[in-house]
Amino acid sequence: MARKPIIAGNWKMNNTASEGVELVKALKPLVADAKCDVVVCVPAIDIPAVKKAVYGSKIKLGAQNVHFAEKGAYTGEISANMLKEYGVQYVIIGHSERRQYFGETDETVNKRTLAALAAGLTPIVCIGESLEEREGGLTEKVLDKQIAEGFKGIEDFSKLVIAYEPIWAIGTGKTATAAQANETIGYIRKRVKKLYPHKNAGRLRIQYGGSMNAGNAKELMAQPEIDGGLIGGASLKPNDFAAIVHFDK
Fold it and tell me: Is 165 in the active site?
């Protein structure tokens, strides 16, 4: 079965609710004929307004994080059921910035992923290596650990998305070559199939999350292992994001 491409925008800590609504209004007509899944992952406080803005369009609503508990004394956190009630369908988990600045670990990534799946959300789980790790020849070792520990207990890999983030290519202007990205994503797919056989691993969608933009999207998306992109800065510009969504034109 062919894997449907998915282009997801990660707004990070950008756009007030009103700014987010204006962005979506501009984006909607540009992606009305999109052949891939289109997602915007927005700051939590923007979710109610953006939910109304995307209504009736091709754009699906995503969040940028989720807690692993259903409820409790976790000040500042948001549960999967809270997101679900507001119409959120996707949630980014384990982004490199969460790992770097907020202490996210493979264990907490795993717990958050399982909680999101239990609530019927589609996790976009981020994995990837630093520049030091890549230059040290440790890419596969790092990915092996993230895959082994981050995906324990997953029963159906068709219900989640992996975003491969070469951390050294995020916000730096550096980008892995299309061949490099394809090779590493192919390795991830092979590793998931080996560790989790009979879990629908063949239907797993894997995005590239390292500075995909309007200029390189077509080349990256032409690679057989790459199923989409997790887009940062370019997702804040409607025309640029739409150009990535229409990578096949």
Answer: yes
